[in-house]
Specification:
- The chain has three helices and nine strands.
- The N terminus is likely disordered.
- The relative contact order is 0.18.
- By secondary structure, it is an alpha+beta fold.
- Strand 4 and strand 5 form a beta hairpin.
- The strands form two sheets. Strands 1, 2, 3, 4, 5, 8 and 9 form a seven-stranded antiparallel beta sheet that branches. Strands 6-7 form a two-stranded antiparallel ribbon.
Length: 169
């Protein structure tokens, strides 16, 4: 009887440890850590604006969740090789107070297949909702954990509910 109880407890502990490890891996991905280190200056949305980024409307998912407001640097869209310090888009979640909170970045390339630190970009064909030619993209949820994965498009932990609160952004 003690052996069964011990085995049950051991199984439960191993499942909990595996779940915690998976959750930690999703947020503590090495590339996400590199992206955070290279782009922490964007915590203040004014830095993104000063570096030539302009906002496009908040993007929500049809199944819930969102990507937030993308601030896009059009000149970086011409980059042929991804540069960790020059994301093509910096993503923010609008708060109820109108403040923008940095949540992720997106790298976009029109030449592919593209990768950054060994992580392959996803391919988006045309026509697409952005009106762009076919492109490769990589979202990196470096500041907001994403239960769908570090590189997923939509994040169920993000909302566009307060996008109308944006004043001049």
């Amino acid at each position: 009887m003690h052996a069964v109880r011990w085995a049950t407890r051991l199984t439960l502990l191993s499942l909990l440890a595996a779940g915690a490890a998976a959750a930690a891996e999703r947020h503590d991905n090495p590339l996400a850590a590199h992206v955070r280190a290279a782009n922490s200056r964007f915590q203040d949305v004014k830095v993104a604006v000063a570096e030539g980024y302009s906002p496009i409307p908040c993007t929500s998912g049809i199944d819930g969740g969102a990507m937030g407001v993308h601030y896009v640097n059009a000149s970086y869209l011409k980059d042929e090789t991804p540069d960790i310090k020059r994301p093509q888009a910096v993503m923010y979640e609008p708060g109820p107070d109108g403040k923008m909170k940095l949540i992720a970045v997106e790298y976009i390339s029109f030449k592919g297949p593209a990768s950054l630190d060994g992580q392959l970009f996803a391919f988006n064909g045309a026509p697409n909702r952005y009106g762009l030619n076919p492109f490769y993209e990589l979202h990196v949820w470096a500041w907001r954990p994403n239960p769908k994965g570090t590189f997923a498009d939509m994040n169920p932990n993000v909302t566009c509910d307060h996008a109308s609160m944006m004043h001049g952004h």
